[in-house]
Amino acid sequence: MKSKELKVLDEVYDDGDSLLLRNSGKEIRVNLGDIKHIRYGTKRSRRPTVIMNFRQDTELGTEVRFWPAGEDLLSWDENNDIEELIGRIYQANAKYREIQLEDIPALFEVRIATWENSNGAEELESLGYTYNVVKQMLKHTHQGWLCEIENRVVGFAIGNRKTGEMWVIAVLREYEGNGIGKRLLTMVEDSLWARGWLEIWLTTDPNEKVRAVGFFRHLGWEDWKMDGNRFMQKKQSDGMTTAKT
Length: 245
Prior knowledge:
single chain, alpha+beta, PH-domain like, 2 domains, four-stranded antiparallel β-sheet, 26% helix, elongated, disordered N terminus, disordered C terminus, GNAT_dom, Acyl_CoA_acyltransferase
């Protein structure tokens, strides 16, 4: 089957929450939330190309492509403008909500997929984390939020309101770097501050090279102590130090 030839746009203007697209005398404006998918890379030629899929048919079709202005064979990581645009499109399509008990299987899938050197569900179970254990935690001591894109859970974060611990955060690799983890972490932090905690804490890998360490530091967390794992903390300037029930 012959592959479909995508329309190559003449001009693309980034207008914040929308894109203005022009091609062969036609002009349309597309909200970022109406872009179903965007990808960036090289295929037949070495010239970096952006391909976008729309949720609904437009005057320019459902798929278009364009070459970023001023590009000189830059790789994905080097193209900050396109990377930032992709992040905003993800955010426009992202839905955040509080975790419900029926979300637990999806949480396990995300955690296993993002856990470095993990042996999967068996290892989680060996550490005492089963569906039922997490269910009881969410019922009595823990609270969390998740992010969905296209009805798929792509990340989540959970805190322990009884101890002030930011217990776990996980975002699928393909969605990292788009502000999802930051927003989920902030939601847990805010919930713990609201519970009256003056200091909140977490544990992470002792290895400085693990990406999570830099992520937490970038968002204001500081090293607290080393005791097998790395303990980090974050302080609130006002509030109570006793957790509310």
